[in-house]
User: Fold these one by one.
Assistant:
Number 1:
Amino acid sequence: MSWRLECGLCERPVARGLATVCPDPDCSKPLLARYDLGALDGEALRRAWTGRQGGMWRFREIMPVEPSEDPVTLGEGGTPLLEIEIGGEFEGLTLMVKDEGLNPTGSFKDRGLCAAVTRAVHEGATDLVIPSAGNAGAALAAYAARAGVPSRLFIPEDTPEGVARRCEHYGADIVRVDGLIDECGRLSAEYGAETGAFNISTLKEPYRIEGKKTMMLEIVEALGWRAPDAIVYPTGGGTGLIGSAKTLAELRELGLVDGDTRLYAVQGTGCAPIVRAHAAGETYAEPWRNASTEAWGLRVPGALGDFLMLEAIRESGGGGVAVSDEAMKDGALELGAAGVGASIEGGATLAGARELRRAGELRDGETVVLFNTAHLLTY
Ligand SMILES: Cc1ncc(COP(=O)(O)O)c(C=O)c1O
């Protein structure tokens, strides 16, 4: 099925091709893909999806590929949704983990970069660039390699050596930057403008959201086409949270789910711009000064899609919670004790869920899904 693009803020229609952000200079906000869902038969789709093998491209009718196109794939998606028993304050809840560590490069970033690289090369990109805390860089490097195009990565200098080596393994050209992800973002944009490399930075192109959207599709499917009561998401740039909200809206429009899911964002106490802005009832999030957390994926001081995240959280009746690095690490160990190889960001979701449970936000009888966004071994 075909799709069109529109601005996520001013809703201005934007031509496809190597699309970036809203072309109105006073706006410049992220673009969203819109499908003609009214023309689709939800029940027929559900049957077709269930009957298909494979990972995230099973949902291709609501993904950005034309019927004649092949995606650039490494077998991403199709990750397990595991019910875990932690006990203590979690008694009375059905607690589940979407274990994204099982993706080809070990993180959920594969889904987004798979969709973005697929679109970029079909639209004619021959060179790709990205700023990354590590996981997105590894994913871009792998998918660029798969597509046979070069990739350049700007990563913060203090990115763990193992993470950087993982990117190098796929043949990417890596530049270490004395600064945080926002400085890497500036350099990527500059490099793209100078060389013509297509910039796949978070929300600077519309399709990473479309890939991340498939996590929620798989969750709803695994629950027997029922939306979970709540999800707890480790939030950085926000594509996963925005993608999850988008999936639920699209499935509702297709008549495939009717329940509501509360979306909760977890961030580190040393960098929690979205949690702070949500608590203050803001539409946009002030950038966080002196951002610091060992959860590199969550060290995003200012996000282009802040307003989309805040809207999604608010409209879902969810919320935000900030947890310390120590609590994240303890959370990762607790998930480990339940057999899940969780990254620190995955651990953050357990720590956040505990706070939310104590605050009475997660109630008896509810199904709550945590996102282990990367495998323990990615660090
Ligand atoms: C492991 C991990 N979890 C969470 C995030 C944040 O994800 P999002 O950009 O969807 O908010 C990142 C981003 O780098 C990450 O690497």
Number 2:
Amino acid sequence: MEGRGPASGSASRRWVRQGGGKEMDFLILFLIYLAVSFSCMVIVIKFSRQSQECFARISHHVTRMIGPVVPRWLQIAVQYALYRLIHQRNSFFLVLHLMLEVAVYGEYSWDVFPYSLELGFTLSILLLPYILLLGKMYFFYLCCTSDPGIISPSNHKQLVKVYTYDGILYQRACVCSTCKLVKPARSKHCRVCGCCVHRFDHHCVWVNNCIGALNIRYFLFYLFTLLGMTAAVGTVTVRFLVQVALMSNLPQAMYVNTKGEHVPVGVLFIVQKLFLTFPRILFMLGFTLLSFFLLVGYTAFHLFLVMTNQTSNEWYKHKINCRCHMDNSCPDRQIWRNLYHRGLVTNMKEIICPVTPQKRSR
Ligand SMILES: [Zn+2]
Ligand SMILES: [Zn+2]
């Protein structure tokens, strides 16, 4: 614990005596780390939600940029790897997801948990992230392995009767060129999975599966538990750092400036000191908080979709339709009305107890 554990009063004095230049370097490094992590998360979330077009465009520009300096064989290898990553089912993001979780929980278990226990935190608070992790793993497993609602010749006849065609986003007698079946309303062919999915929401790279009528409930619970995990880990870690700063009397600490005056340390100074003492914890906390804020937005978006009985696919298509509607010169402009919205309770029921062919045929 020496040099890393909860700081005593002497530790705070030692911190205050240290110079300022090095801390600033670390802080800049930390800010760059946050900016890069945030950008990567936004790109991956955007890519995982909608069509892969934006990701394909990025890879195209990157290939063009590196073209003059990278050998041809390497370019072909990169293009092939990107093609596999974008257009075929693969476990890259699934493994990345698990690796990030191992890194966060490894740091939590190695440093935050034992230090917080020494500081007198209750065991129930410290164990909450593990309980949420168990719940998340269960729903994650269900999302990865469950049938999202794959349309096959055996269930097609019944699925086609579940939703009515709105005549705008979903047209009657529209045949999937791959599956050779008439597309039921609200279904979509997933290029990555190679099948049509009933009430298609999106293809999620994090679970390497489509999200559709039959597994959207698992996906929502997966999001809730994931959000809970980041909130629990973040709260315990922030509480631990605040406690350490208070025990070290850091808010009351003074430092001598270049004019030889004693000046009270500010919040930024305390963060810098904590960062120098617990760099791994701060990196983990930065990543956890970024994930938390992105997950808040993403979960809120999905709750909005549940409440209005829309899929991500419909919301995205509707957005394009709206843009078209505002353009008076567009020959295809039509006003889209959400026919599937039947009130909050019914909408939620539809998610929790999806309309399956068996239920419909009763
Ligand atoms: Zn299809
Ligand atoms: Zn899919």
Number 3:
Amino acid sequence: MIIKGFCHPPRSADKLAASVMLLSEGRLQLSTAQGHQVLLLETVNINEPLGRLPIRLSFPDGSQFIPDDSQLLEGVLKARERTWLHRVERNLPAIASSLVLMGLLFALFFTHGIPWLTSGIVKALPQQVPVLVGQHVMQTLDDNVLTPSELSVAQQALIKQRFHTMVAQLPPMPVKPQLHFRRWHARPNALALSDGSIVVFDALVALAKTPEQLDSILLHELGHLHYQHVMKSIVRSSLLSASVAVLTGESTGLVDTYSGAGVFFVTQGYSRKAELEADEFAVKSMFDLYGTTEPMQQMLQLFITPNGIANELPEWMNTHPALETRIERLGE
Ligand SMILES: [Zn+2]
């Protein structure tokens, strides 16, 4: 429908005969004797009529259109608004399902895309990367928290010998396993680094009552090496932080805080899975090497003190399903 009226050109009191017409896709055509101009309706400012004043359209270039019949233009604009709303309503199921689909895609990206990318990247990394990262972490730990082991040379040699005999019977490892002895106060703990280093703390050696019990923990750490969990967790947290930054766009402090928490919980989920994998590796190896998982169960029991409170739990137990569930699982 063509709506007739007049137009004030920019910064001018001239009154030119003009007309406007609403086109499809939210466009509007302004016609004067000088020519046509097509604009997006959203760039046009609609000045609502005040009292007896007519409705006015202000264009980005400063020109203004005033219709002969204010009510006619109002009616046309209102009808357009209604059809737009109507269109949204009619498409609501489609809009809702695209939102659900988008949510699903995000979820899939985090549950499958990130692990897939992580494995790919870790496989493609040159061998020097896990070696350098491992050496750096070891150096940092030595500089800050660890002290030299107080175990006798003979005892260290004996454990190392058992360790290498075990490794020789296991499937080949992506990195060369090496055993190190350190002290970290009285913490019975062991940890695996990306370069193949497994660090055993004196208190763990003291806690184990038999060599097989200590072996079960070493096998758990070897499980981490087998699956390259350390390098994967480093690559994964970088990927997660990068994805969150991309998805949320500009990072405000608030987004940082929440995405930080999100990354933390997602990472916790992944590391619980890593602990289960390392456990399964240890269980299978215990069966292969000793025909039983009993020493592993006994070792886990040793972490529970008589008053029911567990010893300060090592890294791999904090992120773990409850100790009792773990022992039960082994019994099955
Ligand atoms: Zn672990």
